[in-house]
Backbone:
């Protein structure tokens, strides 16, 4: 499914410059967030920037504007961590701070860090590996990733 930034703006009643801003932010934050820059001619004859998004990138932007990007994922994260606690009989410290990072759940008794990976983590594998190495070194812990 290929969609343009203009189509996303129109579909969700957003200003196109705001959609462009959000896409640029994702490009800078997510290493594998790939879009194609193209142009269109507006009604005054000016050639302006638009982005073409495909696959995961389009789905991520659409989910963001549908309001589904954070609320359900936060509920899924809570449910996943609660299941870990119930099944393993442990108590996790939520949003445990390690330096400049936070871990979704930390079991200090068994020294295990739990990180719930939302879909956007598929695009930031290298950054997550660096973050995980720092956390493992700082806490001398094992690291468990839970994919949503």
Residues:
């Amino acid at each position: 499914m290929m969609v343009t930034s203009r189509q996303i703006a129109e579909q969700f009643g957003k200003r196109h410059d705001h959609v462009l801003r959000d896409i640029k932010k994702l490009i800078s934050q997510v290493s594998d967030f790939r879009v194609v820059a193209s142009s269109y001619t507006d009604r005054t004859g000016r050639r302006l920037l638009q982005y073409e998004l495909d696959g995961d990138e389009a789905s991520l932007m659409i989910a963001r504007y549908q309001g589904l990007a954070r609320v359900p994922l936060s509920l899924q994260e809570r449910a996943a961590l609660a299941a870990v606690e119930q099944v393993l009989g442990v108590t996790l410290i939520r949003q445990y701070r390690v330096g400049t990072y936070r871990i979704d759940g930390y079991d200090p008794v068994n020294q295990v860090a739990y990180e719930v990976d939302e879909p956007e983590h598929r695009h930031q594998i290298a950054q997550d590996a660096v973050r995980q190495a720092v956390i493992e070194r700082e806490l001398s812990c094992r690291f468990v990733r839970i994919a949503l």
